[in-house]
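Z., the sequence and structure:
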Amino acid sequence: MAQLLTIAVLLPLIAAFVLFLFPANNPKAIRALAIFATGVSLLITLTLFAGFDRTKSGYQFVHSIPWLPSYGCSLKFGVDGISMTLLLLVGFVSFCGSFISSEIHEREKEYYILFLVLTTGISGTFATMDLFFFYFFYELAVIPMYLLIGMWGSLPPGKHGRTKEYATMKLTLYLTAGAVLALIGLLGIYFVGGTLDIERLQHNIWLARSTQMWAFPCLLFGFGFLASMWPFHTWSPLGYAAAPTAASMMHAGVLKKLGAYGIIRLALPLLPEGARHWANLLAILACFNILYAGWAALTQKDWKFVIGYSSVSHMGYVLLGIATLNVVGVSGAVLLMFAHGVMAALTFSLIGFFYHQTHNRFVPDLSGLARKIPFIGTCMVMAVMASSGLPGFANFASEVLVFLGSWQQGSTLFRVATICAVWGIVVTATYLLRAVRTSFFGPFDEKWSMLKDAVTFKQKFPYALLLAVLLTVGFYPRLLTDIIKQSVATSIVNRLSTGNEANAASADTANNGRTTP
């Protein structure tokens, strides 16, 4: 079973190399291989999830391939409840994204190669247990997005003359700045901790308090750039709007989650003193994410910008859950990463469906679409309801956990933050319901009479699959919360509770900042 995890992660990358051998004039075979690779990877991930032992804590399916033994570096994969949940997210979104990519008709070979490399980069980041390869896969996930947007993206006029080239360059500069800042923190952890093994760092190494005070903000803000943390979020809506449909799905659905995952996986357990010191600031920034981005979404007329700012707002709930530093809140953040990832992928795929036919995403121009595309209209209404926190969808369960965790934190600041977060749900419902009412249920405009709905199984399958995932987890959240909660408790919250001033003080005086409790 351990080898299966490695196969699930690397199979899309292997398929990308195989695609180099394919002739460029055979797009059907190229697309079929991409669907096959992502589909098999999803099936393997589901097999691992079914075999995941819910009674055990720690990493499972650990498989290591030595790479630089003299530096203690190895290609080591393993999953706990947190990474298992997010690997499932990658599997569903990448598989559906490969289906949606039928709209690509130029340079298909290069497109699918980059899409598969992107998939492995994201999966590898979630599954790796080595600091070097964490950063390697992290960068491997970011680089293809630049090319996917720059070569196959589009940005309708109207945003002050900004083009897709502007969007890609802004995305690249912001994410590169964040990656460099995170690298400084990771290098500090390595040089002080003396190992690249994430599991050993989590359980056997206590870093000095002085190290934690400067390393934590490096990781928090470095990964926060990718998580669209306010005020470093401005690249994100432009990136969504300019990206082709499947790239938007991957970008909003899973790529952005890498930032939050980096904070949860590395910053919280490795730097517990730093986490407690900076938690209040993180909660404040999370409120700005929720409310500022929500109010910005209220003013948008382009569907992709509406959902883009909505995604920035929803990442505020994730950051607030992380800031609580308790089991309920952090577990809610992880579940929301999964729920929002599926919901965002579904929404962007639906936008892509009607944009491919209308070449128009302007909300007031798209009146009455549900009369011509009722299946897509129904799916959009359900996606909007999920994003608005309607009970029965996975988003509702995850947001409730974040609210409870934030309120249980006890301080006045977090209780005010909880009230702001609940109010953010009202703002979300306002702009999403207004957009879907105007575009799909207003008076029908005859200029859209040529629209064709999704009628075949092949056309409906990706949307139905993503909706089924949202509803399944929504009605039975314990499917994921049991494994998430156990991993959060053992690998993060226990570390936070035991990494007190006494531990830090002993670490200051032992072994130049290193000690094994």
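The CA atoms of residues 216 and 442 lie 50 Å apart. Confidence is low (pLDDT under 50) at residues 500-517.

Let me know what you think.
H.
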